[in-house]
Amino acid sequence: xxxxxxxxxxxxxxxxxxxxxxxxxxxxxxxxxxxxxxxxxxxxxxxxxxxxxxxxxxxxxxxxxxxxxxxxxxxxxxxxxxxxxxxxxxxxxxxxxxxxxxxxxxxxxxxxxxxxxxxxxxxxxxxxxxxxxxxxxxxxxxx
Length: 143
Prior knowledge:
By secondary structure, the chain is an alpha+beta fold. The protein folds into two domains: 3-72, SH3 type barrels (Roll), CATH 2.30.30.90; 76-142, SH3 type barrels, CATH 2.30.30.90. Helix content is 18%, strand content 40%.
């Protein structure tokens, strides 16, 4: 998963940086493999984003953040990149309207769901094919 896919408020561990001029610049900013990065906030249109790295706030464009490979802690995964299997919903990142929409599909914090295909979820209320925008706002843990 790339750093640009991590939802706001979560931390991830840097796994790898590209071996290039951009990679050298990212390392000099503190994005060193093995360090933890927290996504602090998004700009209104989603680009750039603010990250907390080594007690420094760094603003980074998504073009650069997509090159940083990261791993979420505690076997967490974003639904948009989840493999087939059974998961528990850990968090839903969205406002009241988003929460209502998820509730209608029985996608709620603490519920167990089954991923049966790319961004396809089976709940007690049926099978739902989610778009990337919605799927990237649902945090899961494998059961």
